Structures are given as C-alpha cells and as structure tokens.
Amino acid sequence: PPELPDADAILNPKQLPEESPYRSLAGVGIAYILAICLAQELGQLKGLTQQLLELFTLGTIADLAPLTGINRRWLKRGLGLLPQSQLAGVQALIEITGVKDDQKSLKPEDIGFRLGPRINAIGRLSDPQIVIELLTTTAPEVALERAMQCEEVNQRRQQLCADIEQDAIAFIEDTGLDWEQKRVLVIVQPNWHHGVIGIVASRLVERYGVPVFIGTYEDNDQQHIRGSARGITEFNIFEALEFCKDLLGKYGGHKAAGGFSLPADNLSAFEESLSRFAHQSLKPEHLKPLLAIDASLEFSEITSNFYQQLDLLHPCGISNRDPVFWSANVQILEQRVVGKGHIKLTLNQDNQPVTIQAIAWRWGEYFPLPKRVDIAYKLREHHWEGNTTIELELVGVRLPVVTSKVTSTSTTKKAEFYYNQRRYTCSFWESLNELRIRNPEGKVLAIQKGQRIGLLGTKREDAKEVNVTKPPYYPLIKAATRALGLS
After folding, report:
1. Does domain 177-286 have CATH number 3.10.310.30?
2. What is the per-residue pLDDT for 403?
3. Which residue in 57, 96, 295, 444 has its CB near the most CB atoms, within 10 A?
4. pLDDT score of 147
5. CA 395, CA 378: separation in Å to the nearest integer?
6. Which is it for strands 325-338 and 295-296: parallel, antiparallel or unpaired?
7. What gap in Å lies between CA 302 and CA 316, rounded to an integer?
8. What are the backbone angles phi and psi of residue 115, rounded to the nearest 5°?
9. How far apart are CA 166 and CA 168, in angstroms?
C-alpha cells in the first residue's frame, strides 16, 4: 500500500529492493525465515533445520513461486533432502505417489505434479487439519493414514477439475468469447467449486494461450464472486489485479498466479479493466506464442552424460524454465493412450539406430498424432524397476517443415517435402538450370536459376508469369531448395 500500517515488524518481500535475492520469496519462505530466526533466538534450532527446509521446498514449488534468487539456492538443498525425509508425512506421500525414494534428489515436477497436489487438495476440498497432522506426526502409521486421505481427496479433486474444465471449454466455445481481441479470458459460472478453479485456469491457459481469470459465485443469490487467475510469461497477474483494485474486494498473488473476490455488479467493469491492462502489456504475437526453442538435438546426442550436464541447470520451474529442444522429421513408431488421457510414444529418426520413449501429458484428445512430425520437448529421467532412462516430455509438435526423399539422375534431382502442412514434389533440371515445384492440385511453378519471374500453371503454354521474389513463392522455393540439398 502507499502508506504502511503501524507495526512492530512488516514481513513482506515486496518491500525489498528489486535486486534483492529475497524478493522472490513466497509466504512459505517468510514463514521459514521467521521460524529459523525464532528457533535460533530461543536456542531451539537443533534438529529443526532440515525439517523446516523440507517444508520450505514443498511450499515454494507448490505455490508456483519463482525459482530464482534465494529460492533457487535453498531449493537445490531441499530437493536433495526430500528422498530421505525426516518427516514421516513426506515419507508417506513419497510412498503412495510412487516417487522413487532411491533418487539422489527430487525434481520440482515431483512436487508440482505429485506431492503438492495431494497436499493442496485437502486445503481445497477438505479439513486442513489432515495436512497439519500429516506434516507434524512422528508416527509412520498415522502419517500413512493421513497420506491415504490426501490421495482419496485428490482423486475427487481430479474429477472435479475435469468436469469444470469441460464445462468451461463448452461455455467458451458455445458463446464465442472474443478472448483474442480482449487479450484476456474472463469466465464466471455458478456451481463451480472455488477450491479447484485455479487448476482449471492453468489448463485453460495451456489451451488458449492467454491470461485466464476464472470465478464462481460464493452465494446462492450470485452477488459475490471468488476467483483465481493464471498468466502467461509476458503478463503479470499481481500487477493486473493491482490495476483493477478499485473493483475488487480482496486480492493477492504474484507474477504467475493470484486470487481475487469482487461484487458481481463489478464483473463487466472488471473484464473491461483487465482487457485495458492486457492491451498495455501484451502484443498480439504474445497470444498463443510459438515455443521458445533453445537448441536442436539429434537422438544420438541424448545420452546420460548429456543429461547429467543439463541437470546442473536445475532446479527449473517458474522464471527459470527447463531447456526446450527440438528434433526434425521424427517418425512415430508406436503410440498409445495411457492413464488419464496421456500419449506414450516410441520415436525414431531416419538413418539412426536410436529409438527413444516420449510422453505427451494430457494430449489424449489429439490421438493419434501424425506418423511424421517435428517435435519440441524437455528431457527427463524415467525410473522404472530399478532402471533409469532418459525420455522426452513433448511440449509441441508440427508437421515437418521439410521432409525430403531425394532421388537423382545425371541431369535431374527430385524430392518431396512438406510446407505449411501441404505435400509438394520438386525437381531440379540441370540441363535447363530450372527448378520445378508441383503442389497437391497439380499446378507447377517453374523458375530458372537467377530469374525473378517464374511460370505457374498446369501446362507451360497456359502458365502465367509470377514474381517469385514475393510471398508466397519465395519461402516455398527456399523449402524446395533445402529439400533438394541445393541450399
């Protein structure tokens, strides 16, 4: 706030300078520092340091806090402690979720997708006392019982999320919400459980590529709305809520996520205000953006040694993302739907003996994928029956930009390729110094090397002249020459 309240102490990392490594702390980080300092002051720190760091690690990742600054430093230590946790409740969670306790260190995704959701599900749908007992008991049998309760509630949470997600998608697509023009998606419906709508917001962000503010009514009269928000990289959720604060009751959060409440009468104004903020901070190209790729890899380069070097960059997560790689013209040898709508794949690249396993989380609605694709992915370790392998976690696919099969004679070289999801054939006639490209409809573009004007038509005598230095011809010619190995 503009004026700080009178207080003996204000524990808020946002009051720190921008460059402070402590500025990225979430609430659990503040609690961790306070607990350490109090225990130290009282001479009671012995035996608490590791347990408190484990709780800090769980909470920081589960709360989607940035993995930068002091968070990153402490998390690296905390993730190494969790496989042999001193907390009976954490040991029980690791057991029921199948996270391998023989790992040297857990990954943020082990918490973000396995341990964390089971803890959070209780706060969303049940009695928080269950989690308090889970994380404070020293009795293994009590810890296991509470962990099983977490598992049961989490399964109910998963079903609720699936139902609300389907309702939301149907509403968005049936009503034609113009989220692309508004650059933000705001959706409020009755009878949704406010405890899980934040998870649904994350899934809608994945689907539509825009910031999502989702809410439900807190009362039968539909006078008060309670909501959650999730953003994209270029959009700051907390700043957006600050921009709309005059319309809100309570609000809070950070760059990636937040929560809010408001009177239902303010909903239209809230949506308009969010759209104004979005137009200030987002450009059209930020919506449904192309993936940011870090490097190209051949499958033969994906080795345990390479992964160990990559692992030095961890922990990765919010504000410190995993490297994303891509491989071209990959062949899908096998694919099947597993679990709750995931696709498991076996992949191969031409002229390489290496096959590699991949997983595409929640891609079941896109099954089956085309037989040949360019893929974008992260690398991850897969532990199974005592064996550890490297597999791909797919984050994007497209039809191959160029997939060529080249044949040649003494005077002619031929190839086929894909461009803009269409199949073309092409040939280069050395005796004529001429490139010919045939589209799926049978039209041929003929260009002599070094000329700006080409011929387009089904027959040369009826063909029209076109300027091949302009779209759409120039990029098509570049794709053809790459397929033929001429560039």
Report:
1. yes
2. 47
3. 57
4. 96
5. 7
6. parallel
7. 19
8. -70, -50
9. 5
CB 426 within 8 A of CB 483: yes
Classify residue 78 as exposed, middle or buried by CB count within 10 Å of its CB (0-12, 13-18, 19+).
Answer: buried
pLDDT, tens digit (0-9, with 9 covering 90-100), for 269-309: 999 999 999 999 988 778 776 688 899 898 989 999 999 99
Query: What is the C-alpha to C-alpha distance for residues 242 and 164, in angstroms, rounded to an integer?
Result: 27
Name, in order, each residue with C-beta under 8 angstroms of 421's C-beta and a sequence gap of 6 or more.
Answer: 399
CB of 231 closer than 8 Å to CB of 255? yes
Q: Where are the domains of the chain?
A: 13-154, 177-286, 295-397, 407-484
Does the fold of domain 295-397 match that of domain 13-154? no
Distance in angstroms (rounded) separating the CA atoms of residues 31 and 40: 14
> What residues are paired with 337 via a beta bridge?
343
The answer to whether 424 and 444 have CB atoms below 8 angstroms apart is no
φ and ψ of 142, to 5 deg: -70, -40
Q: Are 372 and 400 in contact (CB under 8 A)?
A: yes
pTM for this model (two decimals): 0.69
In whole angstroms, what separates CA 369 from the centre of its chain? 19
Its CATH class, for the domain covering 13-154, is: alpha beta
Of the candidates 292, 277, 202, 178, the one whose C-alpha atom is nearest the C-alpha of residue 235 is: 277
Structural tokens at position 226: 């309670």
Residue with tokens 């897969």: 382
Q: Are 486 and 412 in contact (CB under 8 A)?
A: no
Burial class of residue 283 (count of CB atoms within 10 Å of its CB; 0-12, 13-18, 19+):
exposed
State the number of CA atoms in the 13 A half-sphere of 372 facing the CB: 13
Q: How confident is the model at residue 411 (pLDDT cuts 50, 70, 90)?
A: low
> Which residue would you say has higher pLDDT here, 415 or 248?
248
> What DSSP state is assigned to residue 320?
B
Distance CA 453, CA 440 (A): 22
Q: What class does CATH assign to 295-397?
A: mainly beta
Q: How confident is the model at residue 240 (pLDDT cuts 50, 70, 90)?
A: very high
DSSP codes of every residue in 209-277: -S-EEEEEESSTT--EEEEEEE--TT--HHHHHHHTGGG-SSEEE-SSEEEEEEEGGGHHHHHHHHHHH
Residues 346, 357 contacting (CB under 8 angstroms): yes
Task: Give the containing element (helix H, strand E) for 39.
Answer: helix 27-41
Mean pLDDT, range 231-237, rounded to an integer: 91
Strand partners, 257: 230
- Cα separation, 268 vs 271, whole angstroms: 5
